[in-house]
Amino acid sequence: MASPTLQWPPDITESEAETLTLLATTYALSHGLVYLPVASIQPPAPTSSIHAPLSLFPSPIPRNQFEKARRLQNTYNVLYARVATDVEFLDRVMGEEQGVGQVDEFTGQLWRQWKRLRSREAGIVQKLHLGLFRSDYMVHAPQSTGDVSLKQVEFNTISSSFGTLSQRSAQMHRYLHSSTGYFGSSPYLKSENFPPNSTTSGLAEGLAAAHRAYGVPESRILFVVQPNERNVFDQRFLEYELLEKHSIHVIRQTFDELAISAEVDPQTHVLRIRPQSKQLADSPSAVEISTVYFRAGYTPTDYPTPAHYDIRGLLESSRAIQCPSIPLQLAGGKKVQEELTKPGVLEHFLCSTTHAKVFTAEDLADIRSTWMEMWSLDQGGDEGVSRAREHSANLVLKPQREGGGNNVYKDAIPAFLDSLPEKERAAWIAMRLIAAPKGLGNYLVRAGGTGGAVKTNVISELGIFGWALFGGDDGSVDEKEVGWLVRTKGEDSNEGGVAAGFSVLDSVVLV
Ligand code: ADP
Ligand code: MG
Ligand code: MG
């Protein structure tokens, strides 16, 4: 890292760790850095919460790399907006006739819904798309070169979570610092090294921008949510911000509820939702929706029947702005991430003079500097697979899925390749493993466990949030970088994913 002698976490005594744990968990519980507990019986409304898993110390990120990642978010916002509006590219890469949709049922289902709407007489009636993005990185510090840089893990275009909770975990570390000075344990722990983080207002601004663009002030924003979601507070803070700062009302519904409550006017294509009675006591009639924000729909289990894909298609068929639209969700596929690394593809999206803004060679070089090598398993006959076998010790294989727990790592790769039908190769990419710095640790605290903080070696993942509103006739992209997230996991776990229970919420100390 910045200094080869950086020792993390700094030395503290056992009783200091206990003090920090008490201050951290009480701060978390009193400031909404919380989850719903795993409930065996679901009461009509929640009666308790538990603190989110958290780290006692923020994690070190080199200042220049952190600033670069935030800067690059503006380019990434535009890049993914352009991918989502390049129909020919998405058909080729993700479609059912030529791309991943042929072999991956989930991708195929989404693509077919989109294709059907494009082909109908009315076509796509809402040109605008909204993206709330999170670009994820890890520090890459290969011992062979001594270089330190951030490399992109993935780019999320749907249900990018932990925005509002990450603001709270940053505030918690700031509080631990103001309250205890971290017992003078490290010269890095000073206030100018704790970067600000205002994801809540930033993400809500993106949703409010779409709502304004829709142009019907009294319409509402629909949050499409999963039943039994435990990470509800992360979503609710956006809801409160929309109401308090923008006077915009939100309705939350699951796909199953929408199956009964959603209707699209055949003439005007206005989407209307009948609220559940408990949601809107004052307004039993259907309300117009300006923007559909998906915190569900990113994984096949959200669509247990074909009818669930039809509900997604119904929402997409309307005038409401989709966050994300189906093409924007497809643009976030791992296969697209890999395709972007092929020669000329980035130039196609960022340097064409047909675009409203043309990027420089330096911008492109900066973007490319964040990539690890990737290739497709169906590349060049058997070549993609044999290369994956050869390099398996330094690889991860990824399918077209989100939400963690889907990848195949290192030693597990050869046997996996033996069992993978040839036809399914096209659904997978191979990616070089990012070499996270060795020897960094932290104290991790989980609610309910054995109690207390566990000191362990860790790997951290930095996410940068951004939004983009795009698709209008002038080809411009209204976009912003709006904050960050750090998730930290024990060194020996391959996967990240706070929701999946493998990692904790953390924050940044710049070094
Ligand atoms: P998902 O969309 O399911 O979150 P990711 O691409 O983020 O998929 O992969 C899940 C996790 O796997 C990441 O959070 C990270 O911990 C690990 N991972 C993914 N790609 C790499 C990589 N190239 N090097 C090291 N770890 C990786
Ligand atoms: Mg993802
Ligand atoms: Mg991820």
From TrEMBL:
Kindly state what the record says about how the cofactor is bound: Binds 1 Mg(2+) ion per subunit.
Q: Give the matching InterPro entries.
A: Glutathione_synthase (IPR005615), Glutathione_synthase_a-hlx (IPR014042), Glutathione_synthase_C_euk (IPR014709), Glutathione_synthase_N_euk (IPR014049), GSH-S_sub-bd_sf (IPR037013), GSH_synth_subst-bd (IPR004887), PreATP-grasp_dom_sf (IPR016185)
GO terms, molecular function: ATP binding; glutathione binding; glutathione synthase activity; magnesium ion binding
The residue ranges of the Glutathione synthase substrate-binding domain are 221-331
Q: Name one Pfam family in it.
A: GSH_synth_ATP
Q: Does the keyword Metal-binding apply?
A: yes
For the keyword Hydrolase, the answer is: no
**What keywords tag this UniProt record?**
ATP-binding, Glutathione biosynthesis, Ligase, Magnesium, Metal-binding, Nucleotide-binding
Q: Which residues bind ATP?
A: 154, 334, 398-407, 409, 431-434, 461, 489, 495
Give the metabolic or biological pathway.
Answer: Sulfur metabolism; glutathione biosynthesis; glutathione from L-cysteine and L-glutamate: step 2/2
Q: Which domain of life is it from?
A: Eukaryota
Please tell me where substrate binds in this chain. 134, 158-161, 229-231, 235, 295-298, 487, 498-499
What's one GO-annotated cellular component?
cytosol
What reaction does this enzyme carry out catalytically?
Answer: gamma-L-glutamyl-L-cysteine + glycine + ATP = glutathione + ADP + phosphate + H(+)
**Cofactor dependency:** Mg(2+)
Binding-site residues for Mg(2+), renumbered to this chain = E154, N156, E402
Q: Write down the EC number.
A: 6.3.2.3
Entry's NCBIfam families? glut_syn_euk
Q: What family classification does the UniProt entry report for this protein?
A: Belongs to the eukaryotic GSH synthase family.
* Protein name in UniProt: Glutathione synthetase
What is the organism field in this record?
Answer: Cristinia sonorae
- Which lineage? Eukaryota, Fungi, Dikarya, Basidiomycota, Agaricomycotina
